[in-house]
Design a protein that fits this description.
The chain has 1020 residues and is mainly alpha-helical. It is 65% helix and 4% strand. The chain has 51 helices and eight strands. The strands form two sheets. It has a five-stranded parallel sheet, sandwiched between helices. The radius of gyration is 35 Å and the shape is globular. The N terminus and C terminus are likely disordered.
Length: 1020
């Protein structure tokens, strides 16, 4: 509307800030190698925006793209992600091709931040805790991709006004950005951050991140004030005036501007030192029409659009232009940089003008804004319309108009995964509920506003919205945004209301929510609450609530008390979900059912069910189930000894969960991958995967899984201090409020092993007996067998110690009884059974070579090189202890050679030491003949009978490549590669690829540097 206007209060000379500007420029330089994160703080008016503008100009001169966005001052009224939406819009405009490529395939999800990308994802069947995290992860990856080749500066201003969702997203970016030529810079008012300000915890959290730099702007000194005034006035100021302005402004750059201009225009006479008076003095010097327009703009928001301002001001076009020109010429108003509209040049002036409004005046202006926007919704951008309308009606104190508008805004916040804003808006709606006329409430429908609350004996399209519907939405929103205490209070209030007006289905639904909250708040395991929900739906006709109650009970039982009752609950949940057509509950329950079937021994049927669920969930786009399938199915495969199959699915799972932004699922996938790689003897890869599981953006339990894998690795490598540290870390993450066998038993296993290794057998026994007293429920054999084996090994190793011999027979008897309760229906469980039988005999002082031979034969059928090395060591020990002849000594020698090769390759120091000690005591030579000088010049491949092609294949096996990768490298088929690998294993006399690689390195078939690359082909 205005083009050529003069402003003179901003100095054309950039004053001071050389140190701060150098810090920003250094960050820009470093961004070529790593993303940079900076926070700029300072009091209002100190010059944060001017510093950022100067830096942005310098960055553009160096070829960077600058995308900025500001938090709006009505952020508390529910404009989620406002600065990110603005900045991403500018980034898309600057780099359209790169942006489109980076967002490809994720437009629906990213449309929650940037609506112009397309229609946001359709109504989700069931919201979960990962929805917001998924959006955050996709946003981070978008920025990394856009900034892969082009330096990008992302500026987010005025964090002190940021909504909760913006704060959460910013914290996530600061924690997780790992690649890209990216500088993320955010500003905030430090003097606004009082003790209860919501930004304060975020600043404390970011202070702990070494990757975030804090820049604090101080006030100007006298010399800098002198230079600023000279720039504003375009002449040298009188020293007395500089002294006066410096004293009164105390070096605050904005106050210097205001005082300098006021003095130059002769408005300084009688000016008080009051901040409010200082800010209002030049506003009051404007013509009356300009003052009136300024008051209208002050109440409209951060920016008021041209057409909206015209509709509210009700001035003729010429009068409005003249009023605006006066405000802009006085540097009170300024054209908006990103749209046709106006804003205050500095927010301090806006706040002062707004505070100067009378209560009735403020309400009237908000009503006029609301009426104008209702009459013509195109007056403001589409993505701001409902939230601004809700704010205007609410502050107009018109409850009948405000309630529907606030509910519409809550739906928009929910659609954008801005659950903090949704919760606040729903609480506002509940505040308005009782003062809104019944005739208005009767027009509201659950189908429009209550997504999470399933229909309970009513038709959502026809029944009126109820207060309980709002409470249900608020309870879920609170849980999803982390406000669990608020969510629990709302849930308890709802249940009290339902005590007064009984409604079994609605009550059951709230009891399920209370169960989840009880677990997440670490106040119990949630079973009592689920039990109440089951009682409430018992005998009622099938419904979505009924299916959800059964599915929740089945899932809880699978984790806590797997067995027939859990399976029956899962079967009923599947049946009920099918009857009411709820696909997501059905798929979730089927996944639970499949896992329970495997635990019960119906392996093939259970795995087929889980594979089918994975495919079906992918086809239907049920992301929550897709993520869970990529966690649970590989875990079940690992549990039945199919580690290679599990690892393949888990590698796919990393990509799938990352693409979908399922952060916690990704954390579980990494932890499970670490477990499978550990079993397969790829320990370095396992350690890397475990560290991925521990990334800070994952929640506590996935990180605990990573800690457990690192504890196992440390124990097997002989670092007991590290194993104990990681165990303590895992216990902290898991907590004690909700014990589950799948967590508790592995932690007991490590605790038994560490205690025994440190000579604390009584502590090891205490850990075992606590577990046995608690019980090993049906379906926990994958955790029970290793625990019993670890305890038995500890007893056997301590045999003969007078201090620990008392009580050993009783402990061994407890172990035997417990073993009889564990299933042994698959090869890996049968192998553990045979291994445990042999170890029990050793704990009683019997060598039992036949039993150890049976254990070796059983473990040889598995792809578990470390386990095989352990039982081979025990067989060698048993053969030598039984008074063996030459044949047995020769066999023991070869067994110990294989054990040593694997232990050295894996870095299993305790096993390597034990093998060397046994060989020394038995006077066995473990160095192979081909390493002797006479044979040094011979080709090891010839000595082992390998063809040239088999040598090529072995080299790639030692590098950690799969059969498919070997086939690609050698231009053969995967089947041919598999045949070559089988022939190599037979010629080397080993049972797995890890042992083959170890032998190849030991005899010099593979260069040493190849060993340093072992497993790189599978690393992620």
């Amino acid at each position: 509307m205005l083009t050529d206007v003069e402003t003179k209060s901003v100095s054309p000379v950039f004053v001071g800030r050389s140190t701060e500007l150098a810090t920003l420029r250094t960050a820009l330089t470093r961004a070529t190698t790593d993303p940079q994160a900076l926070l700029i703080g300072g009091e209002a008016g100190v010059g944060k925006t001017r510093l950022v503008e100067e830096f942005a100009a310098a960055a553009r001169r160096r070829g960077a793209v600058v995308a900025s966005g500001g938090c709006v001052e009505i952020g508390a009224d529910g404009l989620p992600f406002a600065p990110f939406s603005t900045a991403l819009r500018r980034l898309r405009r600057e780099l359209p091709d790169q942006f489109a490529a980076a967002a490809s395939g994720q437009e629906e999800e990213l449309a929650r931040l940037l609506p112009e990308l397309g229609a946001a994802a359709a109504r989700e069947a069931r919201r979960d805790e990962q929805g917001m995290a998924r959006l955050f992860e996709l946003t981070a990856r978008l920025l990394e991709r856009v900034a892969a080749e082009q330096t990008v500066v992302l500026v987010l201003e005025d964090l002190h006004w940021a909504d909760a969702s913006t704060r959460h997203l910013l914290a996530y970016l600061f924690r997780t950005l790992r690649t890209g030529r990216l500088v993320v810079l955010a500003t905030y008012r430090s003097d606004d951050i009082h003790r209860r300000h919501p930004l304060r915890p975020l600043l404390a959290e970011l202070d702990r991140l070494r990757t975030v730099q804090r820049v604090e702007l101080g006030r100007f000194n006298r010399e800098e004030v002198h230079r600023q005034i000279a720039g504003i006035l375009a002449r040298e100021p009188e020293p007395d005036r500089v002294d006066d302005i410096f004293e009164r402004s105390d070096g605050n750059a904005f106050f210097v501007e205001e005082l300098a201009v006021a003095a130059d225009e002769g408005c300084c006479t009688g000016l008080t030192d009051s901040l409010r008076d200082l800010l209002l003095v030049r506003v009051e010097g404007l013509p009356e029409s300009a003052q009136r327009v300024a008051r209208i703009v002050a109440e409209g928001g951060s920016t008021v659009e041209d057409r909206l301002l015209a509709a509210v001001a009700r001035l003729s076009e010429d009068d409005l232009i003249e009023a605006l020109r006066a405000g802009v010429n006085a540097s009170i108003l300024a054209p908006a940089p990103d749209r046709d509209g106006y804003r205050f040049r500095h927010s301090l002036v806006r706040e002062a003008v707004s505070d100067d409004l009378l209560p009735g005046e403020r309400s009237r202006l908000n009503r006029r804004y609301a009426e104008a926007l209702e009459a013509d919704p195109t007056l403001v951008p589409a993505d701001e319309r409902v939230t601004r309308l809700a704010s205007y009606w609410y502050h107009a104190h018109d409850a009948a108009k405000a309630l529907p508008a606030v509910l519409d805004a809550s739906v928009e916040a929910r659609r954008r995964h801005a659950y903090s804003e949704q919760l606040r808006l729903l609480e506002r709606a509940m505040e308005l509920w009782d003062v809104v006329p019944e005739t208005v409430r009767a027009t509201l429908r659950p189908v429009d506003y209550a997504e999470v609350y399933p229909p309970c004996g009513c038709t959502p399209e026809q029944a009126p919205l109820r207060y309980l519907d709002l409470m249900a939405e608020a309870a879920v929103a609170g849980r999803l945004c982390g406000e669990r205490e608020r969510s629990m209070k709302i849930t308890k209030r709802a249940l009290r209301l339902l005590d007064e007006e009984p409604d079994p289905l609605r009550a059951a639904w709230f009891w399920v929510q209370r169960s989840r909250l009880t677990q997440s708040l670490a106040r119990g395991d949630g079973w009592a609450e689920l039990g109440t929900a089951q009682e409430l739906v018992r005998g009622l006709p099938p419904s979505e609530v009924h299916a959800e109650v059964l599915a929740s009970a089945a899932s809880w039982s699978m984790l806590h008390e797997p067995g027939p009752e859990a399976m029956a609950a899962a079967e009923r949940a599947v049946e009920y979900a099918r009857m009411v057509g709820c696909h997501d509950i059905e798929l979730n329950a089927r996944l639970t059912l499949g896992g329970l079937m495997v635990d019960a021994g119906d392996i093939d049927t259970g795995l087929a069910e889980m594979y089918d669920v994975k495919e079906r969930a992918t086809e239907l786009g049920v992301d929550m189930v897709v993520g869970r399938a990529h966690v649970n199915l590989p875990s079940v495969l690992e549990g039945v000894g199919r580690s290679e199959e599990a690892a393949g699915l888990l590698r796919d799972g990393v990509d799938v969960t990352r693409r979908l932004g399922l952060l916690d699922s990704e954390g579980w996938v990494w932890g499970n991958l670490a477990e499978s790689l550990h079993s397969l003897g790829r320990w370095d890869e396992a350690a890397r995967a475990a560290h991925h599981a521990q990334r800070s953006e994952h929640s506590a339990k996935p990180r605990a899984g990573g800690s457990m894998r690192l504890a196992y690795l440390a124990y097997d490598r002989g670092d007991m201090a590290e194993a104990a540290r990681r165990l303590a870390e895992a216990r902290t993450f898991f907590g004690t409020h909700d014990p589950m066998p799948q967590y508790a038993l592995p932690m007991r296993w490590v605790a038994v092993g560490v205690a025994a290794a440190e000579g604390r057998l009584p502590d090891a026994r205490a850990e075992l007996l606590t577990a046995l007293d608690t019980g090993l429920p049906p379906g926990t054999q994958r955790y029970g067998w290793p625990l019993l084996l670890a305890a038995t090994t500890a007893e056997a190793d301590a045999l003969g110690d007078p201090a620990t011999d008392p009580g050993r027979p009783e402990v061994l008897e407890r172990i035997r009884k417990a073993a009889k309760t564990l299933a042994a229906g698959v090869p890996v469980w049968r192998a553990y059974d045979l291994w445990l039988r042999a170890e029990l005999l050793r704990a009683e002082g019997r060598s039992a070579p036949d039993e150890w031979s049976a254990a070796v034969a059983a473990v040889e059928a598995l792809e578990r090189p470390y386990d095989l090395a352990r039982v081979r060591f025990r067989l060698a020990e048993a053969l030598l202890a039984s008074g063996a002849g030459d044949d047995e000594r020769a066999r023991a020698t070869e067994l110990l050679r294989l054990v040593t090769a694997v232990a050295d390759h894996l870095g299993a120091a305790p096993l390597a030491r034990s093998a060397a000690s046994l060989a020394q005591r038995a006077r066995l030579a473990l160095i192979p003949a081909i390493r002797e000088p006479a044979a040094a010049c011979a080709d090891p491949a010839d000595a082992l009978g390998l063809t040239s092609r088999e040598r090529d294949v072995l080299r790639l096996v030692a590098a950690g490549h799969t059969n498919r990768r070997i086939a690609e490298e050698l231009f053969i088929s995967p089947k041919t590669a598999s045949v070559h690998v089988s022939n190599i294993l037979a010629k080397l006399g080993v049972s797995g690829r890890g042992e083959a690689a170890a032998v190849a390195h030991r005899v010099g078939l593979v260069p040493a540097e190849a060993g340093n690359r072992l497993g790189a082909g599978q690393s992620r």
